[in-house]
Amino acid sequence: MDEAFKALADPGRRRLLDVLNERNGQTLRELCAGMDMTRQSVSKHLAVLEAAGLVTTTWRGREKLHYLDAAPINAIAERWMTRYDRQRAGALADLKRALESTPMHEFAYTTYINTTPEKLWQALTEPAFTRQYWGVGFETDWEKGSPMTWSENGAKTTDPGQVVLESDPYRRLSYTWHTFTPEWAEGAGVDGGTLAKLQRESRTKVTFTLEPHGEMVKLTVVHDGFDPGSTVLAMCSQGWPALLSSLKTLLETGVPLP
């Protein structure tokens, strides 16, 4: 949290977060175009934000994309804004208003796991692992373009739109999100009104990027393609941090979180 506060102390870095909040997943060139700074200054500010966990990055071909990671900001909000009235939280008011007024349309999360890329890939793809920390099993050959069947809470979900988008073993994996069926909703305890909202929204996709980081692996998860005001985004933003924490615990201790 100290690193996050230090990063937020600079108005230029706060402006960069505002720009990413307006449109997530931008390149350095795109960010420079919207800032009254040199390319070198923007690059330095991004490095500070990334070190503080406020920005996470992933590669799309030769392009490095930058995403706002709201986890540290949420931690600050829970620690300070929920315990004191808004007037006492004046130092964060501008950022808070920006986050509230422009809804994010992507979810990005980065974690570091003490494992190998091979074991992490196995944990992301093999049902014997995914069922332990996620409660989900995938039936697919993990080839690009292949269909996927999701098994969760006793319900199997199949649909032509559920496909593997990218599959580069031990480096990058991407697939479309599952279809929201009445059978899935019943198993997941989702009411009919919420299911109707979910079914009206566009199909989203999730991308996992694995990067060796010393004796650890840096795992970046980007879930995007959400509609404005998305119910799916609200649900996934709460689910992903817990799910990835359980994945990390499983790989590092052999036992997932409860």
UniProtKB/TrEMBL annotation:
What residue ranges are annotated as transmembrane?
A: none
Check the record and name the SMART domains matching this protein.
HTH_ARSR (SM00418)
Outline the extent of the HTH arsR-type domain.
Answer: 1-88
Molecular-function GO terms, alphabetical: DNA-binding transcription factor activity
Q: Which species is listed as the source? A: Amycolatopsis vastitatis
Family as reported in the entry's similarity comment: Belongs to the AHA1 family.
Family annotation (CDD domains): HTH_ARSR, SRPBCC_CalC_Aha1-like_GntR-HTH
Q: Which domain of life is it from?
A: Bacteria
* Protein name, per record: ArsR family transcriptional regulator
Q: Which PANTHER family match?
A: TRANSCRIPTIONAL REGULATORY PROTEIN
